[in-house]
Amino acid sequence: MNAKYFFTFRKAHVAAMLFSAVLITVFTACVPRFPEEIAEDNGFDPVRLERLSATLDTYAAAGRLSGGVALVMRNGETVFYHAFGLRDREAADTMRVDALFRIASQTKAIVSVAVMMLQEQGKLLISDPAGKYLPEFMNTTVLEEGRVVPAKRPITIRDLLTHTAGMGYGGGAVASYWQQAGIQGWYFADRDEPIRETVRRMAALPFDAHPGERYVYGYATDILGALVEEVSGQPLDVFLQENIFEPLKMVDTFFYVPDDKVSRLAAVYSASGDGGIERAPDPGAGVGQGHYVNGPRKSFSGGAGLVSTARDYGRFLQMMLNDGKHNGRHILSPATVQLMTVNHLRDIPWNPGLGFGLGFDVLLDVGARGTPGAPGDFGWGGAYHSTFWVSPHDKLVVVFFTQLLPATGSDIHGKLRTLIYQAMVE
Question: How many CB atoms neighbour CB 246 within 10 A?
Fold first, then answer.
């Protein structure tokens, strides 16, 4: 064969082989994988995962929960995504994976991220006194042995992020002061005033502890929401929408439910004394069904105000697991994510095996806590019995949404954790 034609033939042959390889790659990439294959590829046994779906279905069938949605992701892929039970028992409406849930205190993690974004933009330091931006908080008071005394030092932003600023939810020894001011409990959806004004009134009331001395869970993140408004110059809902929800494509996360999505909002139930559930009041004190739909829509509670879906919240958590990155864009830097997910309590006592970071609890000692996981896991939950956790060690994201308040006697969180880890075999 003539050398010229040989090399021409050789080039054509190589080109054909490369084209075939590209076609095979494209075809393979376009062939959908079954959920079982995705689970196996990411270290889960599909048969063992069926124990989780069966248990969730059983809880709903037995009337221990109305319904809910569980989402498990590993290595960025969805290995379990299951809606169970009913969105609304009285209407016999089946739960869907895109159901909307009141996530209550799971709002805190998102608002904590917003604060850290402002630090990354050079607009604040978390070591700053909160009073630098909210002047009424520069000099606060504490109820100590029956007497109202000046706080030993100003509250810092870091105190608020770690719940060591000293204010609870208006109960305990200070209850009479907070009751008279009309500020108690975490529920804000019924309030006919902006969060900034409510927070302004909080500053004049006595707190439970001096800054930095105790872990006291309460209004700290609501105060942070007001701080985000002051520093950014935007309402909290607008700041979150532009800086977190839109970049993460969290299309179903908001403080109040849009009219065209009301039919997806899950109903709230309460644990009854016989181990079952009953419909919660509509609306009820602290329970609140109607206000997320028909309320004044004025108060954007940074501590407990958001409504979301499991998929949306999973996107937020995957960003945290990815060191602040989502779809090629950094919401936070890796250094900030690391700072948020290590223990900041130091010698302040709290729960066995757990520390607290900047918006998340942090697992320090698996044996001391006594449930499956790995050191460095971080998470939190909400008043309606929702929960989440992220495991950097296992590359795992878990979101569990239901609407049960109060959830007295429910053991579903323990079952959820156990059944996820028993299915994770690699």
Answer: 11
* Global pTM exceeds 0.90: yes
> Can you give the pLDDT at residue 52?
98
**In the chain, what are the domains?**
36-107+236-423 (3.40.710.10), 111-232 (3.40.710.10)
Interatomic CA distance for residues 241 and 246, integer angstroms: 6
The letter for the amino acid at 178 is W
Q: Which helix (H) or strand (E) holds 362?
A: strand 361-363
Q: What is the DSSP string of 181-250?
A: HT--SS--TT-SS-HHHHHHHHTTSEESS-TTTS---STHHHHHHHHHHHHHSS-HHHHHIIIIIHHHT-
The contacts of residue 257 (CB under 8 Å, 6+ apart) are 100, 265, 292, 293, 307
Helix (H) or strand (E) holding 12: helix 3-30
d(CA 398, CA 387): 8
Q: Estimate the share of the chain in helix, then strand, then coil, as percent rounded to the nearest 5.
A: 40, 20, 45
Element (H, E) at 158: helix 157-161
Q: What was the pLDDT predicted at 341? A: 98
Tokens for 269?
A: 């139930």
State the Cα–Cα distance between residues 116 and 161, nearest whole angstrom.
Answer: 10
State the alpha helices, DSSP H only, in 31-94.
Answer: 35-41, 46-61
CA angle 28, 33, 39 (to 5 degrees): 135
Radius of gyration of the chain (CA): 24
407-418 per-position pLDDT tens digit: 999 999 999 999
> What is the average per-residue pLDDT within 240-259?
97
| Contact by Cβ (8 Å): 199, 301 | no
Strand bridging mode 141-144 / 206-207: parallel
Q: Report the alpha-carbon distance of residue 378 to residue 340 in Å, rounded.
A: 10
pLDDT for position 155: 98
How far apart CA 30 and CA 117 sit, in angstroms, is 37
307: which strand partners?
102, 254
Task: Identify the H or E element spanning 414.
Answer: helix 412-423
User: pLDDT for 366-409, tens place per residue?
Assistant: 999 999 999 999 999 999 999 999 999 999 999 999 999 999 99
Give the sign of the dihedral formed by CA 414, CA 356, CA 108, CA 316: negative
pLDDT mean over 89-108: 97
Tokens representing 10 are 């050789």
